[in-house]
Amino acid sequence: MLRGGSRWASRFKIFLPRLKNDYKTPPFLLTFSSSFTTTAPTAGTGAADNDSSQPGRPSAPPPIQVGFTDSAGRGVFATRRIAAGELIHTAKPIVCHPSLSSLHSVCYFCLRKLLPDQRPLFQSNDVQFCSQECQNQSQVFHEIERRADWSTFNDYCRMHGLKYPLLVKRYACLVISGSSSASSLDILQPASLSSEMISLVEKEFCLLRSTFQDADINTQQLAFLTKQWYTGVLARIRINAFRVELACESYEDLLSSAAASVEAEGAVGNAIYMLPSFYNHDCDPNAHILWPENVDARVKALCDIEAGEELRICYIDASMDYEARQTILSKGFGFQCNCLRCSSHH
Ligand SMILES: C[S@@+](CC[C@H](N)C(=O)[O-])C[C@H]1O[C@@H](n2cnc3c(N)ncnc32)[C@H](O)[C@@H]1O
Questions:
Q1: How far, in Å, CA of 255 to CA of 235, rounded?
Q2: Which ligand 1 atom lies nearest to the CA of residue 282?
Q3: 276 CA to middle of ligand 1, Å?
């Protein structure tokens, strides 16, 4: 199950959980420094950062920290009052991939929609980029990826409607090129995969490995690519991947931006981010993730949020009724939602 932006205009009161008395912040994530979450405007994408960022001036750290919740593991909490509509932070993906149906209509690196006259400009091995800069930045995975013939792997994914293996493929290319560590997703919560699911991924794992082997990627470089690694990554992707839906909106009116998200065409791709993965779900969320231009995500407040309050996003289509939401959250994410809205069966 992939998470998209919230599509539900808030009518219910926001869930305000108590922080644990023994509230502790994990040592790996304290308050976020600007270097962790704020990102320089992406070359060629024009994506801006936190509202406070100005060229030559360090941007303020985002007003959030990761801590433990009473009942949903780790979560993201406000460190000060956040006003409705405020841009809380931006996030660049750890790994992303266009959906197979968007392969020829979006940039292979940043998932920005390509203009028809851009298509012939930045082309490499049958994929396109929106700018020279995106093409250059893609070298971290594309140098490896283009050495192999992915037609069988892609056909298998297309035939079975699979999206996650494409993310694993790109992540594996980043690891092989030395641009990423094979353990960089370990910090994320994994889904528990049944033994039936684990046996089902055998085929895609073997295809991925054999495609690299056929491209003469040597055994030493492929040492990390075991079935255990593959299923571990897949288990994390399953819970933490976002479906990227580009919504061209004005930022001024969050309710209209939520509506824009509903009207946007289907997903252009899928992506994994670090900080956004720590946001828990609420069927009446107080925060919202948007992709105005490309895969660079913007997290905004949907209402006023008090210091200490947990920030939650909605993983699913919140306009669904109670039963449908519970079914999807339980089957897709493995939890029973106990938000205020669900507690009253709305
Ligand atoms: C994307 S992760 C969110 C961060 C996670 N809590 C952690 O510790 O890494 C999604 C997982 O958080 C938990 N979770 C998120 N929202 C929840 C909710 N409303 N009720 C219970 N558990 C929730 C579930 O275990 C879910 O599979």
A1: 33
A2: 19
A3: 12
What spacing in Å lies between the alpha carbon of 235 and ligand 1's midpoint? 14
Mutate to test the pocket of ligand 1, among 2, 28, 189 (most ligand atoms within 8 A of CB): 189
pTM: 0.83
What sign has the CA pseudo-torsion 4, 150, 122, 175? positive
| Most informative mutation of 70, 333, 341 for ligand 1 (most atoms within 8 A of CB) | 333
ipTM of the modeled complex: 0.99
Q: Which atom of ligand 1 is nearest to the CA of 191?
A: 27
Query: Residues 250, 256, 260, CA angle at the centre, nearest 5°?
Result: 80
The reply to whether ligand 1 has any atom less than 6 angstroms from the CB of 224 is no
- The domains of the chain, with CATH numbers, are 34-87+248-343 (2.170.270.10), 100-162+164-240 (no CATH)
Using the atom order of ligand 1, give the atom closest to the CA of residue 277.
1
Distance from C-alpha of 98 to C-alpha of 109, rounded to nearest angstrom = 8
Q: Which atom of ligand 1 is nearest to the CA of 334?
A: 27
Q: Assess contact for 107 and 130: CB atoms under 8 A.
A: yes
Does the C-beta of 343 come closer than 6 Å to ligand 1? Answer: no
pLDDT in tens, the chain (346 residues): 446 544 333 322 223 333 332 223 333 343 444 333 333 333 222 333 343 444 555 678 999 999 999 999 999 999 999 999 999 999 999 999 999 999 989 999 999 999 877 655 666 668 999 999 999 999 999 999 999 999 999 999 999 999 999 999 999 999 999 999 999 999 999 999 999 989 999 999 999 999 999 999 999 999 999 999 999 999 999 999 999 999 854 444 455 445 544 444 479 999 999 999 999 999 999 999 999 999 999 999 999 999 999 999 999 999 999 999 999 999 989 999 989 999 998 8
Sign of CA dihedral 145, 151, 152, 155: positive
